[in-house]
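The authors assume throughout that readers already know how a fold can be written as discrete tokens. A single example would do more here than another paragraph of explanation. An entry of this sort, consisting of the sequence and the corresponding backbone structure tokens, reads as follows:
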Amino acid sequence: MIERNLELALIGNCSIGALVDKKAEIVWSCLPRFDAEPVFCSLLKTDNPDSLTGTFAIDLADFSHSEQSYEKNTAILTTKLYDDHGNGVVITDFIPRFMQYGRTYRPVMLNRKLVPIGSPKMRIRLRPACQDGTQGFRKVQGSNHIRYLGCDMAYRMTTGMSVTAIVDETWFILDTEHYMVFADDASITEPVKQLCERFLVETESYWLEWSRYLAIPFEWQDAVIRAAITLKLSAYEDTGAIIAAMTTSIPEARDTERNWDYRFCWLRDSYFTVHALNRLGATRTMEQYLHYLVNIVAQMDEEHLQPVFCINGTKEMPERIAQDLSGYRGMGPVRIGNQAAEQIQHDVYGAIVLSATQMFFDERIRRPGNIELFTLLEKMGEKALAYYNQPDAGLWELRGSKHVHTFSSMMCWAATSRLAKIAAKLGEQGKADFWSDASTKIREAIETRGFNKTLNAYTATWDGDTMDASLLLACELGYIDGKDPRFIGTIAEIENRLKPEGSRYLFRYIVEDDFGMPENAFTICSFWYIDALAASGRTEEARELFEDLLDKRNHLGLMSEDLDPATGELWGNFPQTYSMVGIINSARILSKKWEHEL
């Protein structure tokens, strides 16, 4: 069995993405878009390497060790493989993205540059797959390319290397630099070296320029820039959708069935993503996402708005089990699609209004919010006002129970509160008064039913006594001041309930759900905890925990959804936008100020 881990790199161009392991194997990539069929899927397979399909591997004979890093402030990856004899190969992986003809060029194309160190002996296993990784592609060999045909798909790998050696997977000595371009089935009309080098220079320039204008904090700059690039790579630019993660079915913990498909756009998660990027000055992602949102809201014709959509804006994502994929480390099931689309989650109305609010107040926005957008958002406010006191599946998408969740109510409050501010900005005083009264009504209900006076804390559900880490967002949402005794009491009760003995990290909840008791900490919750500590005045504790949590990132600065509190091992889908958002937000809150340090 191949022992996989999440020591992976992400490369991409906002149309496609690929995960590359420490030995330069492309273990996951869905083509031609994030939620399409995985063409490379060895991350979820345990086959022997000689029979493995769905992989793009570069094997080095007598392999000794590897080194891996990103080119500074870019999405370009360098992996160095070394053998026992001092030979090696330097592999540069990137997916082109740059401006061309006045628009962004982001092709379905994986580029690999190979440079020898000494005389390395190697082979290439390029085996795209389809039908849940069960069917390989038929190979058609050309003079300088190989066509891969199957499942109504066609791809072409173009190279200056021996295509026979690649087709037959024979070992050979790499004696000079070579290039490989895996893309759609179209001829490359210029020398492959010239094309790759040109694309590499252009792609590097794009990312350096994009990173250059980020409004980063004084401290933890590298961590913030890497998180920002990762969030950018998770945005599907063609429609504006933002996925929760690149993968499906990386389990939340060892041998659990908490395996979900995250290659879709959760309206809640996307709000946190665009909000984090906005704080860094990267507003274009928000504008593109808002276009996606407006199309969804404008077509809403049902009583409830579902919480998650496909990246093309459609609703249907039926959940099925991919029986022929063994799963990460053999820990199935592998799910394709997500049943969460069928759930009722009332916080979604607040997420939509919050996502759009900056459009009305930020002078940098090219097309600021107007009365037409406000009118559309009011539909969300009406839903929030109607459902703030109704049961739902909640933020954590419980499949077997429904309650009136306090966080959902707070998000409904946020929707009405922001609508009041937007109306006032637009000079619509009558509507401002209406939405202000609505927010007061919701707040009074939360204080009566969602706050437990005995515990001196807001609780997970109305009239309840259990805790939920999402309540730490009450200050971030503007619902309550960080030094308010009720918020401090909530922090204390969450510390008492959601930090198991010996753990520094927070669980989202600790009650038995549809799949038993949660086993691992939920990474974003620890970041929320850090931000809450800072807001309540416990800054030194917050900084210490933040530094500790940064140490749990993988070797390239990326994080997944979950964390084993005992070992620090990463679990859950990868890379998780929620977790990368947490890095940005906490760094901004805790960092020393530029003006104080220079």
